[in-house]
């Protein structure tokens, strides 16, 4: 598989982490970004040298023609050999007087031994002129023809280009015409930059509420030429000169990056629906929590999110939410559905609680499950009512079971002609009921005897 990629390019940089290596590989595979195409993996082939090989030579050559490559914050230039090129001379040599062939200095070398015949001159030319000669075959042939007429020849070595400017290279008349076009374009752009433009930025409703006062104040002081207004759906409109809008936009982006966001966990869809009924929107819930301008709440169908510039404020708000809201599910035993008596009691209590403000909600399923949700105080009160109902039902059942047990005991004891039943009252007073003459009543009390 590696044999398919035979056209390498090299570049130098400090050691790259794995994620940066993957980004650079992806960059070289995208033609519109790097001029590249199908390539292999990026490899470290030296202390600070990396290599990537292309499947097709045309992709390699296109990448080499691009003077500068940028991947995130990394800026580098590529070459077609492993050894770095530290200079880019044009070496010329003249034919010796005895007619021998011209001698050229080898590519390697300012330090190589000079030739024994002829004269040699190394010229350090501008890198853009050198690149023009390499990329324009006609210009290179014209140079060779002119040098040949002087009994000279030249060898051009590659050199890494400079960055950060636009350079026009070519014949003088063409260069002057192109420079004029560029200057006219710059002047036109400068005039347009002074015209008022409008730019829309989407922050989201919660972020915009959190940052609005600071945005309005700071932009008014630092960028007075920019007018800022709020739009629907959490959008911000900036109107003014293009240059000022760009600066103001960068400042807003910096503030956005400082905002912390947190999704509140353990918040069921039922609780979220209750909050929408009770408070309507995010602003109403923020007012209830009393967080002021320091925390903003975003209430959605899928969850509840908090926004703030302070992690402590987020912690406190999340804690208050969980303390203030409660959801409880209780199963009523020994019933296939919730009894109508309990339903009516809970609905009546809930209506009373919600007279002034929506505080609690009770829901009944198709089985014997009761769901209580809302503010903690009201939910606990409803929960006590359900618990009391269950206890009352248990007491009735216990009384029935005890009565039946007493009858059985009485029957068995009667057959033995002994005590029919016995009861233990308060203060450990024991009462025995015996079979006999009802005209004679006796009671055995510890320490006493009466007839």
TrEMBL record:
UniProt protein name: Uncharacterized protein
């Amino acid at each position: 598989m590696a044999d398919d990629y035979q056209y390498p390019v090299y570049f130098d940089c400090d050691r790259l982490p794995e994620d940066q290596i993957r980004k650079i590989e992806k960059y070289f595979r995208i033609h519109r970004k790097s001029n590249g195409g199908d390539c292999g993996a990026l490899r470290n082939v030296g202390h600070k040298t990396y290599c990537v090989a292309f499947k097709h030579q045309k992709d390699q050559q296109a990448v080499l023609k691009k003077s500068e490559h940028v991947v995130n914050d990394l800026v580098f230039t590529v070459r077609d050999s492993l050894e770095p090129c530290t200079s880019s001379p044009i070496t010329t040599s003249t034919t010796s007087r005895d007619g021998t062939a011209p001698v050229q200095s080898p590519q390697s070398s300012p330090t190589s031994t000079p030739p024994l015949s002829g004269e040699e001159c190394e010229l350090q030319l501008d890198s853009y002129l050198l690149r023009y000669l390499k990329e324009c075959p006609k210009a290179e042939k014209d140079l060779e023809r002119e040098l040949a007429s002087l009994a000279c020849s030249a060898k051009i070595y590659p050199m890494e280009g400079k960055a950060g400017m636009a350079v026009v290279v070519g014949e003088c008349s063409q260069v002057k015409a192109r420079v004029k076009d560029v200057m006219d374009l710059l002047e036109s752009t400068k005039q347009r930059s002074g015209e008022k433009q409008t730019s829309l930025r989407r922050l989201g409703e919660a972020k915009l509420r959190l940052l609005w006062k600071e945005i309005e104040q700071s932009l008014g002081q630092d960028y007075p030429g920019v007018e800022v207004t709020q739009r629907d759906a959490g959008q911000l409109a900036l109107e003014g000169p293009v240059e000022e809008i760009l600066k103001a936009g960068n400042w807003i982006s910096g503030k956005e990056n400082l905002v912390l966001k947190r999704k509140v966990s353990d918040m069921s869809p039922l609780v979220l629906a209750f909050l929408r009924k009770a408070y309507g929107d995010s602003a109403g819930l923020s007012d209830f929590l009393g967080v002021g301008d320091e925390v903003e709440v975003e209430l959605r169908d899928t969850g509840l999110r908090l926004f703030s510039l302070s992690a402590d404020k987020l912690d406190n708000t999340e804690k208050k939410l969980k303390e203030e809201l409660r959801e409880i599910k209780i199963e009523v035993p020994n019933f296939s559905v919730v009894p109508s008596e309990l339903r009516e009691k809970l609905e009546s209590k809930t209506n009373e609680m919600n007279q002034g403000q929506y505080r609690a909600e009770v829901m009944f399923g198709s089985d014997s499950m009761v769901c209580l949700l809302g503010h903690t105080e009201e939910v606990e009160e409803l929960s006590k009512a359900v618990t009391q109902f269950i206890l009352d039902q248990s007491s009735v059942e216990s009384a029935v079971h005890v009565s039946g047990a007493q009858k059985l005991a009485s029957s068995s004891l009667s057959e033995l002609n002994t005590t029919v039943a016995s009861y233990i009252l308060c203060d450990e007073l024991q009462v025995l009921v015996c079979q006999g003459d009802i005209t004679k009543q006796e009671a055995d009390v510890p320490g006493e005897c009466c007839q």
